């Protein structure tokens, strides 16, 4: 089992930037496909970005392409999300998630396909 803890959220004006971090512990980090999701008030949790274990493959939601960048440091057991040109609609609680290593190696975009979750970090973008 892997434990995940997010940090780096906050309040930022539209057009600004934030960098989220996710610290992993408990198991070797590199085999896990990792992802970021977010959830706005009264909305379902939605996919943001995912990255393969080695970091060579990524996928993004259309709404964040060109503005957000997912990355990881397997030596530090950390996942990151660099967010630029933030918009009010980016507001929400951001979660990092890990896909169980027993699953098929695939960058999936549905919350149910990830097994481990952090507690989330709030991002608020003001207009």
Describe this structure in words.
It is a single chain. Helix content is 0%, strand content 48%. It has 127 residues and is mainly β. Strands 2, 4, 5, 6, 9, 10 and 11 form a seven-stranded mixed β-sheet that branches. The chain has a four-stranded antiparallel β-sheet with strand order 1-3-8-7, with no helix packed on it. The mean pLDDT is 95.
Task: Give the overall silhouette.
Answer: globular
Alpha-beta content class? mainly beta
Percentage of residues in DSSP E strands: over 45%
Largest sheet: 7 strands, mixed
SSE pattern, N- to C-terminal? EEEEEEEEEEE
Summarize the structure.
By secondary structure, the protein is an all-beta fold. The chain is built from no helices and 11 strands. The chain starts with a strand and ends with a strand.
Relevant terms:
single chain, 127 residues, mainly beta, seven-stranded mixed sheet, four-stranded antiparallel sheet, 0% helix, globular
């Amino acid at each position: 089992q892997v434990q995940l803890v997010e940090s780096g959220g906050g309040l930022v004006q539209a057009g600004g930037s934030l960098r989220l971090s996710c610290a992993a512990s408990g198991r070797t980090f590199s085999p896990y496909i990792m992802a970021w999701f977010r959830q706005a008030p009264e909305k379902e949790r939605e996919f943001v970005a995912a990255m393969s274990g080695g970091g060579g493959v990524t996928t993004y939601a259309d709404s964040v392409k060109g503005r957000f960048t997912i990355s990881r440091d397997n030596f530090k057991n950390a996942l990151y999300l660099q967010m630029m040109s933030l918009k009010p609609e980016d507001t929400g609680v951001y979660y990092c998630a890990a896909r169980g290593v027993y699953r098929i190696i695939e960058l999936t975009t549905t919350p149910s396909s990830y097994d481990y979750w952090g507690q989330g970090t709030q991002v608020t973008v003001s207009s």
